[in-house]
């Protein structure tokens, strides 16, 4: 029997309807059908789907996983690790096949022994490419492949949204501890200080639970200009066009994913990005003039909204153009096919 071509090794929660890294992985695995997806995450108990083509484990299985991973690796031809810079389990166990490593979240220290064993390291941002260069990785072994979305599905509305400024926050934190770095407290401060701005905080129902909802509910109580919803949305393409901005208000560089899915989908719908200067994506926004960058303060955010509204049509057009050029799903898949071909 022929070996599986690509084995995807990752630390995602395997909830593609609501979590960006999971969505990217399922997209890759559904396109490259001769593949398997193997996840180890504290948000998983045990998953076994499609006869083992998709498998997920909790880290408490660690002793068994150290034996299982090498056995699974023998069933494949290419290892594709999709993780943060420190894939603790996989760097110890993957030894047989060429390794492609996509760094999907950039917080944490680079694991140099693993980096040196990789055939190709894929960064999603220019900032992480610079970090790889500083670590001494040759240009021939690195690629920039941003996440891709279906630009034919997410389309701009015919007109600018009517009414007062409306801002969407759809990159909800999973834990109470993430609320500060992800920028929830900053958003609420801005809402209190600017009652003329209207906010929607789109939280989602994580299958394995989360701890950020209750403290957020407490914080927004009594704020009529904040709408907090707690449900998964099946068709986000209908949501974005009714907002003037999609916001990423990180207060630290590691506040969340570097290329947030909600931001890319919003930009494809012609919704300009509203991004904190602490977020790695802020450099892209400045370079492509597809939104406004603000200092991570309530005053800075309000000023950015005012600037953005004054030239909203230009920013909207640039947001759609940038998405078509850099974040098209079909381009992403073609680039990964090129990487896999180079491994064989």
Quick rundown:
The protein is α/β, with parallel strands linked by helices and 344 residues long.
| Uncertain segments | none
Percent helix: 25-40%
The chain-level structural class is alpha/beta
Largest sheet: 8 strands, mixed
- State mean pLDDT (0 to 100 scale): 92
Q: What is the approximate shape?
A: globular
Radius of gyration: 20 Å
Give your account of this protein's structure:
- This protein is an alpha/beta fold and 344 residues long.
- Helices cover 36% and strands 20% of the residues.
- The protein has helices at 20-31, 62-73, 90-93, 112-117, 126-134, 179-182, 184-193, 213-220, 261-268, 282-288, 298-310, 312-326, 329-343, and strands at residues 4-10, 35-40, 46-49, 54-57, 76-83, 99-103, 120-123, 142-144, 166-169, 198-203, 226-230, 245-248, 273-276, 291-294.
- The protein has an eight-stranded mixed beta sheet.
- The model has no long low-confidence stretch (mean pLDDT 92).
């Amino acid at each position: 029997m022929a070996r599986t071509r690509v084995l995807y090794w990752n630390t995602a929660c395997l909830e593609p309807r609501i979590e960006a890294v999971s969505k990217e992985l399922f997209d890759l695995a559904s396109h490259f059908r001769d593949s398997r997806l193997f996840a180890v995450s504290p948000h998983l108990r045990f998953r076994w789907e499609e006869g083992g083509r998709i498998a997920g484990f909790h880290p408490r299985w660690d002793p068994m996983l150290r034996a299982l991973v090498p056995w699974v690796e023998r069933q494949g031809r290419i290892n594709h690790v999709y993780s943060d810079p420190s894939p603790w389990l996989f760097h110890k166990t993957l030894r047989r096949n060429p390794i492609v490593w996509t760094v999907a979240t950039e917080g944490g220290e680079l694991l140099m022994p693993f980096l040196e064993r990789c055939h190709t390291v894929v960064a999603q941002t220019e900032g992480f490419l610079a970090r790889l260069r500083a670590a001494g990785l040759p240009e021939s072994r690195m690629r920039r492949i941003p996440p891709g979305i279906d630009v034919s599905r997410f389309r701009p509305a015919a007109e600018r949204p009517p009414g007062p400024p409306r801002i969407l926050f759809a990159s909800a934190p999973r834990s109470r501890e993430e609320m500060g770095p992800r920028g929830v407290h900053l958003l609420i401060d801005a809402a209190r200080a600017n009652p003329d701005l209207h906010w929607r905080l789109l939280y989602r129902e994580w299958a394995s639970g989360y701890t950020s909802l209750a403290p957020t509910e407490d914080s927004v109580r009594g704020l009529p200009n904040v709408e907090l919803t707690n449900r998964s949305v099946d068709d986000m393409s209908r949501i974005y066009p009714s907002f003037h901005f999609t916001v990423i208000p990180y207060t630290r560089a590691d506040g969340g994913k570097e290329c947030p899915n909600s931001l890319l989908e919003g930009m494809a719908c012609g919704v300009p990005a509203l991004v904190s200067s602490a977020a790695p994506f802020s450099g892209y926004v400045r370079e492509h003039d597809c939104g406004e960058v603000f200092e991570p303060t309530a005053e800075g955010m309000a000023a950015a909204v005012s600037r953005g509204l004054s030239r909203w049509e230009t920013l909207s057009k640039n947001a759609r153009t940038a998405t078509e050029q850099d974040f098209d799903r079909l381009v992403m898949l073609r680039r990964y096919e090129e990487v896999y071909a180079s491994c064989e």
